[in-house]
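Sample A.
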Amino acid sequence: MIYVINQFDAIHAFDVHTHRLVWQRSLVGELNSVGDVAADANSLYVRSYTHHPINQERVAFIALNAANGQIRWQQQYSFSGTYIQGNILGTYAGTLYIDEWNGTTGTFYALNPSNGSIRWQMPLGDGQTQWGITIVAPAGPPF
């Protein structure tokens, strides 16, 4: 499957072999904008968010059925601060990884991809530095 998100925050899933549209879904009704995405064999994981007055952002992490676009689960979070960011980092070995930055601290989360529950979490950084890029990769020898 190839997933494309357009400027109107609609997700389109195309069959990689036939190049035909399999499904499409707008998440604008869920929140306002679609951000990061990651995928595994069964699901497409999407960060959707909206901005609220007084520097508050609501972030939802949504798992869609890869075959038909139906919502499998949705977890919403509300963070407050001068700068807010939540990112989907990727999937590896049956775990979905996300991070969150609230302006002073960051947290790295490992989620159960079947329901979005938190398996474990740990603080990121020294409270002074925002993490810009995190890559989830298997352990092993370098290339």
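Sample B.
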Amino acid sequence: MNVKNLMMWGVIVLLIVGLFQLFQNPKKIFHKGKDRIMYLCKMESTRQKKISRLLQKDLAIIFQMDAPAILGSFMFTITGVRVSPDLSVAKVYLSIFPSDDSKKLIEQVKEKSPFFRNLLAKKVRYQLRIIPELHFYLDDSADYADEINRLLKE
């Protein structure tokens, strides 16, 4: 396989992962006059999207500057942040490299969640009235894409 085919498969894998995340909580409805099922997903409001981007940017800085002193020299990537409609809860998706101890590290991050919320509050205190409660989840989509590429090479 040449580089062009690998890039094409990489894009396909990323699209599949994106569609999987989009349809995590679909609602089935029947469209009137049609015999097919349509899937509706909750759309984020503009405010939720703005808050998500703000939190992702500031949490990335926090994990670059402060996390190595607490959790060790691992590379953390904030791959996404989803905010609840009332802006009280934020789901933070983390990708950890190297991914050998990722499950153990994500548990340590969850234990230190109040500490990271406090650091976040210091950064966004003039932009947000309520600092959302942080729920951390492991995002292993990059590992999944690597596994697919490895299988395609065989």
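B remarks: The mean pLDDT is 79. The CA atoms of residues 58 and 123 lie 7 Å apart.
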